[in-house]
Design brief:
The chain is α/β, with parallel strands linked by helices. It is about 50% helix and about 5% strand. The chain has 20 helices and seven strands. The strands form two sheets. The chain has a five-stranded parallel β-sheet, with helices on both faces. A two-stranded parallel sheet has the order 6-7.
Length: about 425
């Protein structure tokens, strides 16, 4: 039986590995660990198909370390203890040249007791832990384990890296390299891949298998789209449709279509999606896309997150649906999201400007003598609990980061800000 293309092309060394240059490029952290042979425990966080499992195997192969794997989906505490016992035997062997590596796929699915069972072995050096997760480790991994393992973020492959992967598939794969392939354009191929290497290779697999041996394989937008529509799940062998559906869900809520949003919610529930994952997305949506247009949205989303922990399935679908409909029908604003992005860019561009003296904390006599806190105006001592003063670093003046959206709540807030700052400034002038 012929192996899938993604498996046939799985890299076995850093030279074959595509992407994640911030981690494996010259002078980068994981490459340095491999070169020195000293591997610290770490967790790889990133979307599917970006090389988490492959990178873990390359690390083990390169330093010739015993490699053990666990899937958090199928393993219990008993399985963890059994594999740790095997690791301990390997580590104590007189032939051991490197500490055993324990790779745990989807580590976010381990419950607290399963994660607790890893702590001792990681702490005393019995194993080097490498975890892989598609979920934010700060939500899903217990704090004691996080303190013992560095988190490294993996990114979706960009267009240049996808081109590199495509070229490698067409030239290095023993099957595709024997076929005549015409690459007219890669727009649809890369769009459907979405930065996922495995998905791109699975699409190529589908094109190869659905094209008669005597005919050339054509890669263009029309062909790729037609084949995928005919075989919607053919390139989704490992559940990555999860990301397409959550994307549709988010965009339906943002686009104020409650019916579509509830449909995609139902698809996720029926597909066995983790309720916490959906609830977190609703929390983010409430802050990013509804924001100041309706601050109650964030309160309801947070209450929804709490509710599903208290009531579980199947009743948890009800608060999820309630929150989904509420957010979809709510007025929308991304002004707070845009404001913090603008402010972050300003900080990156201008560096660490000094805090004005009158805003500085002055807990000691020396600091007071140096002028810390001097001339600060306490807002509550003034009419309307407001007085004009400089809050930004002097060199920046007063750049505007928050631009109110056109909804009643933000228009009122903007009008109040205008009256405060401009009327006071006009009085002084």
């Amino acid at each position: 039986m012929q192996l899938p293309l993604a498996e046939r092309l799985r890299p076995h060394s850093l030279e074959e590995y595509i992407g994640q240059t911030h981690l494996v490029g010259p002078g980068s952290i994981i490459r340095r660990m491999i070169e020195t042979g000293h591997i610290a425990s770490f967790i790889l966080w990133g979307p599917p198909g970006v090389g988490k499992t492959t990178l873990a195997r390359i690390v083990a192969n390169t330093i010739k370390a015993p490699f053990f794997t666990l899937s958090a989906v199928h393993s219990g505490v008993k399985d963890v203890r059994e594999v740790l016992d095997r690791c301990a035997k390997e580590a104590s062997s007189m032939f051991a040249t490197a500490r055993p590596i324990l790779f745990i796929d989807e580590i976010h699915r381990f419950n607290k007791s399963q994660q607790d069972s890893l702590l001792g072995a990681v702490e005393n050096g019995t194993v080097t832990l490498i975890g892989a997760t598609t979920e934010n480790p700060s939500f899903e991994v217990i704090r004691p384990l996080l303190s013992r393992a560095q988190v490294y973020t993996l990114n979706p492959l960009d267009s240049a890296e996808l081109h590199q992967l495509l070229d490698r598939a067409l030239t290095a794969d023993p099957v595709l390299s024997q076929r005549k392939v015409t690459v007219a354009d890669t727009d649809a191929l890369f769009r459907f891949a979405g930065g996922d290497a495995r998905k791109l290779l699975n699409i190529l697999d589908l094109l190869e298998q659905s094209t008669p041996p005597e005919a050339p394989i054509v890669i263009d937008s029309e062909t790729v789209t037609q084949r995928l529509q005919r075989n919607p799940a053919a390139y989704d062998k490992n559940g990555e449709m999860h990301y397409d559906i959550i994307s549709a869900f988010i965009k339906s809520v943002r686009g104020s279509d409650p019916d579509a949003a509830v449909y995609w919610l139902a698809r996720m529930i029926e597909g066995g999606e983790e309720p916490e994952f959906i609830a977190r997305r609703l929390l983010i949506l409430a802050a990013e896309d509804i924001g100041l247009a309706n601050p109650n949205a964030l309160l309801l989303a947070n209450a929804t997150f709490d509710a599903i922990h208290k009531i579980g399935w199947p009743e948890g679908r009800i608060p999820l649906a309630e929150c989904t409909v509420y957010l979809a029908t709510s007025p929308k604003s991304n002004s707070a999201y845009m404001a913090i992005n603008s402010a972050l860019q300003c900080v990156r561009d201008t560096g660490n400007r000094p805090v004005p003296l009158h805003l500085r904390n002055a807990p000691t006599t020396l600091m007071k003598k140096m002028g810390y806190g001097a001339d600060y105006k306490y807002a509550h001592d003034y009419p309307g609990h407001f007085v004009v003063q400089q809050f930004m670093p002097e060199e920046l003046g007063h750049p505007t980061f928050w631009h109110p959206a056109d909804n009643p709540a933000e228009m009122r807030a903007a009008q109040l800000q205008h009256e405060r700052w401009h009327s006071e400034s006009e009085k002084k002038s």
